[in-house]
Amino acid sequence: MATSINSSMGLREWMMLFALSLLWGGSFFFVGIAVGDLPPLTIVALRVGLAAIALWCIALVIGLRPPKSAKVWAAFLAMGLLNNVIPFTLIVWGQVQIASGLASILNATTPLFTVIFAGIFLSDERFTPLKLAGVAIGFIGVVVMIGAPALADGDGTLAKLAIIGAAISYGLAGVYGRRFKTMAINPILTAAGQVTASALFMAPIALSVDGPLDIAGSSSGTWAAVIGLAVLSTAVAYVLYFKILETAGATNLLLVTLLIPVSAILLGSLFLNESLEPIHFMGMALIALGLSALDGRLWQRWAFAKT
């Protein structure tokens, strides 16, 4: 796992990161719709199952074939558990009890855990005071933007802890996923492999706990949300996820969770006629400041200019 990555992202990586934030920002919206008709485990099973179908269609069209190594598939399963099964289940279960906005705030703690885990397990992603400060500033920006009273709400304590558990699992997944670079596996195959392993794991569990799927009992809006969740927020998103992870590393990749609430608010403003308040712009400015600290280049130039 000791492979070199770019500690500072270029324009291409930043563009992919912003695109990923839009796709994952939409996932909280899609889940918020789907939980009205479908039980949590069924939503997770459908999400990874439909995403697997979409990704293998893409892989086969461009000439990629499934790996045959048992070692590779074992790694896919481990990644699927950390990156799909555990966090998806915890987030969907949590969103039954708390609002999607609050869930996105708590999910924004992911970089905190990623910086810690990467610093412990990855020799080329050691944490620095500037990185820790950047994560802290960015998280404060998220809380400011969404509203501190949401965090102070005493209801749904277990649901909040579930979202934190998902953030910890995402942080571990970002570190574990670095091994796929050393295996020289195409990012599309990695994405397809992990959601396939997740689907095979989740399908029997969802069937035994939630029972058979009631297709007729769900609205067309619910199914549109499930398809959007699977194809856009999972299949397409994971192609970007593993490409960024391969080139920019775990710490840079998980900055996306600081951008997700920004994406959600901007999407609401553009498509749902929700108004932007001054507090939103203040929060976005703090997030931008935190991201610049994690990137480091502007801060290094400033420090150099001071000497």
Plain-language structure description:
- With 307 residues, the protein is an all-alpha fold.
- Helix content is 79%, strand content 0%.
- It contains 14 helices and no strands.
- The chain is globular.
- The model has no long low-confidence stretch (mean pLDDT 80).
Short characterization:
The chain has 307 residues and is mostly helical. Helix content is 79%, strand content 0%.
Walk me through the topology.
Blueprint: H1 11-34, H2 40-61, H3 70-95, H4 100-107, H5 110-121, H6 129-146, H7 148-152, H8 157-176, H9 179-182, H10 187-210, H11 220-253, H12 256-271, H13 278-295, H14 297-306
Based on the model shown, name its key terms.
79% helix; 14 helices; mainly alpha; 307 residues; globular
* Category from helices, strands and their pairing: mainly alpha
SSE pattern, N- to C-terminal: HHHHHHHHHHHHHH
Strand content: under 5%
- End-to-end gap: 36 Å
Gross morphology: globular
